Amino acid sequence: MIDFLNAVVALSNFVLVPAIAYGSQLALGALGVTLIYGILRFSNFAHGDTMAAGAMFTIFVTWWMQSMGISLGPLPTALLALPFGILGCMALVLFTDRFVYRFYRQQKAKPVILVIVSMGVMFIMNGLVRFAIGPGEQRFADGERFIVNAREFKAWSGLREGLAIKTSQGITVITAVIVVALLFWFLNRTRTGKSMRAYSDNEDLALLSGINPERVVMYTWLIVAALATTAGVLYGLDKSFKAFTYFQLLLPIFASAIVGGLGSPIGAITGGFVIAFSEITITYAWKKVLTYLVPENLEPDSLVQLLSTDYKFAVSFVILLIVLLFKPTGLFAGKAV
Amino acid sequence: MTLPLKNIGLFAVMGLLLLYTGMSESWNTALGLVNMCLISAIMALGVNLQWGFAGLFNVGVMGFVALGGLAAVLVSHAPVGEAWRAGGFGVIVALLTGAATIVLATMIMKRKAHSRARTLAMLTVLLGGFLLFRALFDPSVLAIESVNPAATGFLGGLGLPIMLSWPVGGLLAAGAAWVIGKTALGLRSDYLAIATLGIAEITIAILKNEDWLTRGVKNVAGLERPVPYEVDLQNSPAFVERASWLGIDAVEASTLFVKANYSVLFAAVLVVLLVMAQLALKSPWGRMLRAIRDNEVAAEAMGKDVTARHLQVFILGSAICGLAGAMMTTLDGQLIPGTYQPLRFTFLVWVMVIVGGSGNNFGAVLGGFLIWFLWIQVEPLGHWLMSWITAGMADGNALKEHLLESAAHMRLLTMGLVLLLVLRFSPRGLIPEK
Questions:
Q1: Where do the structural domains in chain A lie, given as residue ranges?
Q2: What is the model's pTM?
Q3: B62 near A247, Cβ under 8 Å?
Q4: Is A259 left (phi over 0), alpha (psi -120 to 50) or beta?
Q5: Fewer CB within a 10 Å sphere, N or C end of chain B?
Q6: Which domain holds residue B85?
């Protein structure tokens, strides 16, 4: 029995908790991608760098707050700075939309042209972030590091395995739940949210019923900026902020959005967790958990790791491919433009 | 193949830019630039074949380029006999087992009717095959990697002339493209983009982690060269005499000579590819591709095999990228998997194609030259600009120091700006498709 509990704790510590936090971050990122795909009808390659830009604004405000002695006690100051970061990111994406994307929208350019345009935006945002904050690792997390400390947990439970939950992981999950609840309330209950969904379902019909497309697009960008900044800051708190890691998040984020079905918000969340759990379970060395579960003579002598952690891209990619081959529109029927 | 006056002018301007670099900085810099410009132009030709001719959205250029680099190592590096004896056989058997598993699983999927039993059988085969593969593979890899890890620790290559790796790199990339194309080409354009982006990342992950094959992040340096070494030239009396006759220092003359040799080799490849691409563009095959690109449904109704043509052109374009990758590794003389960055090897090539003019081979070549030139020259320009902006500020000012330090990141900004400006004001590029 104790062995079983030890196994459960080890599993939670190394797989469940990190996967839930990572999944929430991916889900928030994928929601942004999916919203842009649904409303503006293109795959936004600049999304990773939008996240980086939003996180960068937040970091600047955090640093300023830290220097002024403002803090949230045990919680990271970044949470207090987040609204300002979101405002900065909103200004940035609205500026981009006004001076870059709007022209192509009026031209009714093909989606693939917009994707190439977003590549240009990606370059510029990436350059701006590196220019403003530098390419190195930036520290901005403060406050209490752990909610549950491994050593204290061991002392409390008397188990051999410790359970550690980082503050950033707890905050990630709570924030993600709040943000997603707000988003769904907005999309399903408010007038603007409904007009957004109508526009996403059928553009012509929406236009006929008097929905102003520019307004819908503007709200989409505002929501995307909020989602991207939140995702970027949470990821930065949990791992660390480096300008280029956000670019690498593009692949798992897109995989999440596509696996769930592009254009479907529920799909984006599901996809985020599917990708996160499979990445972590497949690259985790199961030896520790198995040692507790199987009889002693059957104990594995290898690490029982299916793939080395460096292949986590491969995992999200293979899942993406499997879903696309068997269910081309994703788990929750997305749309195809 | 006549070029209108404007295009000749554009190429002339490009030539003048390079000449100016030679005169104001040094001829070594200029020739180094020319070499990378030539390679970039070849990559741009490959992407142009896929995007410009056929409208395929491939953002996995980096993967194919890296495969070319791998080919350079596998062909030219001397074989490590001891490592082969330690685990070469085991690795090959393991790889064959892996391949057999995949073939078997595909056969089960194709032959049997859709049922739960089929899925179960396929999963069993895949899982069993994977475990067997790991059981055979891991000990051999361990054995290979423990053979003198500081110097080798990998299987090495075939020890053949490195020039041979150029076509081999093309073939390797073509093989990978075939596998990718078979699975992903049926997908919609953005899905294909994500799929190729993923494959490129996986390729780099393999190069970084499979130490038995590539030494991973320990890098492979000192690859053989198709051209003479500078030191040998400096020790050759005939060369020194000729250099002094030209009035150039022997050391400088030797570096220039080596670079010029590379330039001639690369230019020859570029010209051959350009002629071939140009002929392809004008052939019935090229017209068919453009017809498919412009209206897939109509082309299919006319009886054209769209999927087969897409696969064909995807393989051809990728092979050209692989060839360019092998050439680049030859020029560098080393394979450093950590240097493959998607921004530099995928998206920059896309900027080249779009700026040069997609659908036009000369446009792609011009784009390759111009964008590579900018990519390199923007950095000194950024420094110059920053020191000009900050000239009025006091020394030691935090903002001034930050600006001067960040000037290096100007290049990404500039590339994005160039791409957006071209897309906005001249969406068909500098040399538009006819």
A1: 2-326
A2: 0.91
A3: no
A4: alpha
A5: C
A6: 80-155
- Residue A34 has a pLDDT of 93
B 277-296 residues with CB < 8 A to A: none
Residue from the list A100, A124, A251 with its beta carbon closest to the beta carbon of B413: A124
Calculate the CA B187 to chain-centre distance: 24
Identify the pLDDT of residue B1.
Answer: 47
- Tokens for A325, please give them: 């081959």
The architecture of the domain spanning A2-326 is Orthogonal Bundle (1.10)
Within-domain flag for B104? yes
Predicted local confidence at residue B2, as pLDDT: 54
**Dihedral angle sign, alpha carbons of residues A44, A46, A47, A50:** negative
Q: Residue A291: which H helix or E strand, with range?
A: helix A287-293
B275 and B326, same domain (yes or no): yes
pLDDT of amino acid A218: 95
Number of other CB atoms surrounding residue B186 within 10 Å = 15
Taking each helix axis from N to C terminus, what angle separates A47-68 and A78-96, rounded to the nearest 10 degrees? Answer: 140
Nearest CA in chain A to B346: A119
Most B CBs within 10 Å: which of A107, A110, A119, A262, as the mutation test of the B interface? Answer: A119
Is B162 touching A (CB cutoff 8 A)?
no
Burial of A151 (0-12, 13-18, 19+ CB in 10 A): exposed
Instruction: Provide the CB-side half-sphere exposure for B222 (13 A, CA).
Output: 5
Which of B125, B155, B185 lies at the terminal end of a domain, its last residue? B155
For residues B259 and B18, give the distance between their C-alpha atoms in angstroms, rounded to a whole number: 15
Q: Is the dihedral of CA B9, B13, B19, B20 positive or negative?
A: positive
User: Does B178 share its domain with B322?
Assistant: yes
- Minimal Cβ distance to A124: which of B342, B416, B423: B416
CA distance A137 to chain B (A): 15
Site of tokens 């696969």: B311
Q: What is the C-alpha separation between B285 and B310, in angstroms, rounded?
A: 12
Tokens of B382: 């950024």
Count of beta carbons in the 10 Å neighbourhood of residue A181 = 10
Name which of B193, B202, B209 is nearest A115 (Cβ-Cβ): B193
More confident residue, B346 or A295: B346
Instruction: Kindly state whether residues B145 and B254 are assigned to the same domain.
Output: no
Q: Are residues B201 and B146 part of one domain?
A: no
Contact A132 B197 (CB under 8 A): no
Neighbours of A240 (CB within 10 A): 13
pLDDT tier for residue A335 given thresholds of 50, 70 and 90: low
Q: Is B423 on the interface with A (CB under 8 A)?
A: yes
Q: B138 to chain A: nearest residue by CA? A: A302
CB spacing of A311 vs B205 below 8 angstroms: yes
Cβ-contact A337, A262 below 8 angstroms = no
The number of domains in chain B is 2
B299 and B389 co-located in one domain: yes
pLDDT per residue as tens digits for the range B205-262: 889 888 888 888 888 888 888 888 888 888 888 888 888 888 888 888 899 999 999 9
